[in-house]
Amino acid sequence: MELQVTNLDGTSAGSIELKDDVFGLEVRPDILHRMVRYQQLKAMAGTHDVKNRSEGAATGKKFKKQKGGGARHGDRKAPQFRGGGRAFGPTPRSHAIDLPKKVRVLALKHALSSKAKSGSLIVIDSVAQTEAKTAALRTTFGKLAWANALIIDGATVDQNFALAARNIPHIDVLPIQGINVVSILKRDKLVLTKAALEALEARFA
Description:
Elements: E1 2-6, E2 12-17, H1 20-23, H2 29-43, H3 101-117, E3 121-124, H4 134-144, E4 149-152, H5 159-165, E5 171-174, H6 181-186, E6 189-193, H7 194-203
Helix pairs in contact: 2-3, 4-5
C-alpha cells in the first residue's frame, strides 16, 4: 500500500510503501472489541470498598438473650441494623482480564488497518518545531483539517511540539511506545511520523 507523505505546511514530501500485513488487513470488529475491553478493564482502579459486619465500629456483644422473648440476633453489626456492615458489598480487586499477546498484537494491526481503510491515516515527515507556540500550531492543524487526531511520533516526541499541542482540544500526542488500540479508535485521524513508522516496522518484523 502506497501513501503520500506530507509536511506540516501541507506540502508533499514524497511517498512511502506501507506493509499490507500491518495496514491492509480486513478489519475484524470482534478482535478490536476484545482489546478495548481488555484495556478498559485493566485501567479500572478497583478501589471500591465498603465495611462488612466484621469491620464495623459497633460492639460484638450479643445484645439480647437467646431465649426469653425477642428475635435471636447476634450483634448490632448485622446488615439489617442501622450502622451495621453491608452484605455482599464490593471489596478492592483487580478487574483485569487475560488476553493472549498474539491477540493484542493482532488488535493493534487491525486498528491501524481500520484507519488506513477509511482514509484516516496520515503520514507526516516530522513534527519538529522551532518554538512552542500553541496558536501557530492550532492554525496549522486548522489548515490540515486535523480537528480530532492522534499524533504518534518516534521514541521521543519533539518537546516544542508536545508543549504547543497539549492545550489544543481533541488532539492527543504520544511516543511510539504509547500507541494503543483505544487511543487510535478514539480519534478521527491517525497521524504517524516517519520515525513512528520505522519503529512500527521494527516492532512487527
